[in-house]
Amino acid sequence: MLGLIISLIVIGLIAGALARLIVPGRQSMSIPMTILLGIIGSFVGGFIGYLIFHNGNGFLQPAGIIGSIIGAIIVLLIYTRVRARGARA
């Protein structure tokens, strides 16, 4: 169980950092928020993988590094759009 938590944190940090490098613009996020972005992105990537390939143990599962990066990019794009919309209001 501890290994799963540590791997989620490490993969989350890598995926979140790469997503922040890929998505243009400034994202004012701390390191814990970057890790959280990567972890959420991992589950989003796992969900998308389940929808496309229909294999795995369920629709809510962590993805590999590529799926985590893709999921983190999607989550970051949604986050920046919602945050920009809230700033204009």
TrEMBL record:
Main location: membrane
Membrane topology listed for this record: Multi-pass membrane protein
Pfam families: Transgly_assoc
Transmembrane segments: 6-23, 35-53, 59-79
InterPro entries: ABC_BtuC-like, Transgly_assoc
Superkingdom of the organism of origin: Bacteria
The name this protein goes by in its record: GlsB/YeaQ/YmgE family stress response membrane protein
Organism of origin: Microlunatus spumicola
